[in-house]
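Please predict the structure of the following assembly.
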Amino acid sequence: MKKIFTSSIGKKLVMGFTGVFLISFLIVHCYINALVFLPNGIEKYLAAGHFMGTNFIVRTMEVGLMAGIILHIVQGLMLTVQNRSKRPVAYNVAPGNKSSKWYSRSMGLLGTLILLFLVLHLTHFWMPNRYEQHFGTGHEINLYEKMELVFQNPWIVLVYVLGCISLAWHLIHGFWSAFQTLGLYTPKYAALIKGIGMAFSIIVPLIFIAMPVAFHFGWLPPSSSYVPAH
Amino acid sequence: MEHYNMNLTLKVWRQQNAQVQGSFETYQVKEISSEMSFLEMFDVLNEQLIHEGKEPITFDHDCREGICGACSMHINGQAHGPWAETTTCQLHMRAFKDGDTIVVEPWRAGAFPVIKDLMVDRSSFDRIIQAGGYISVNTGNAQDANNLPIAKDKADESFAAATCIGCGACVASCKNSSAMLFLSAKVSHLALLPQGEAERATRVVNMVDQMDKEGFGSCTNTGACEAECPKGISIMNIRRLNSEYIKAGFTGTLAK
């Protein structure tokens, strides 16, 4: 039973399981982000944020999410290094794009770019928020206000856009690849999985990109326009 | 197709044995017919080398009709050269034009050490087969074929997987030097048939075990193997292999 997660296929199963788990997280994250574009967006967004930040079940799942992210990163980096070592002498003429897509061969690189973005992203929002909750005022920070502030800087907006583009390429290969590894990419569902995967990989990063861009160009109502009812 | 002759520059990997480092040697060949196979062009080059008193280039070849899988050459960055679903022996010189430079390398993978020049040791594949790529049946008279009903679609899928000739192009083309396409073909063609049922779970576990011991990488689903396979083996077999492995794992075979 141990080998199912330590053999060459087993290690890939870990990547597939955590990958699908992280995809499911993206759906939630993307849904809450999209709330800001709705009427009364600030109120809806802050309410959802409050729920995510205080609900006991969600906070427990947050621990699982962190574990999943770390496992995906560590296993991914280890696999990249191990797989590279399997060809001690490189080809003089590399196959290049003749037989495979560049992004399918660059999952380690794309993942590393996403990791760098993720560190910055968590430093901007998640870390100060949790700090205030547990060591500061005891309350969450107003993330809407925080975003308004952070996304004034065009360079930060650029890094966010590039991070989301890396995510898109990572997902275009990763989505169907996870199903293939988990043995679920059967002929009957192959076209469906590829189709949903492609749509997901484009739509979700676009919604993510829309947020910093919209804040930067002032397309969203200012946080001062929202006055809490109580 | 119009016949033509061509002069070519060949950059060929020369290596004395697995212990020493190899390097490229450049050769000129003249008046090569577009009707020749790639291996016949190499025969011409070797004749030329022998006449010059030099050591001919060692390369694997056997049937020269595209079914044995011996002719392992990485040509201009592609296993078996530029044509799809073609072995090196079936690659014809009309794939090239006068004045071309062609780079020829051996399969490069830690699990396929170079024996000499373009010849590599693929016995790791044999050991994977020995680990489980067989069925155990009693000898004696063959029973009537109709005793074992097999659905047509299963028979077809099994046969498609069984066309794998074990050439190693999948390993050579994979950025991870993974043998998953080879292994998945061997596991699939038996897993789809009733004859393979008895050892179905132990087979996949033991063969994956052996593959890992031989030092092949893991599969990252780039699809390069499928694109370069001379027999067009589908990566849908890798999907089946993963599924077989998961089933074997969660039904306890791995624990033994």
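The radius of gyration of chain A is 20 Å. The first helix of chain A runs from residue 8 to 34.
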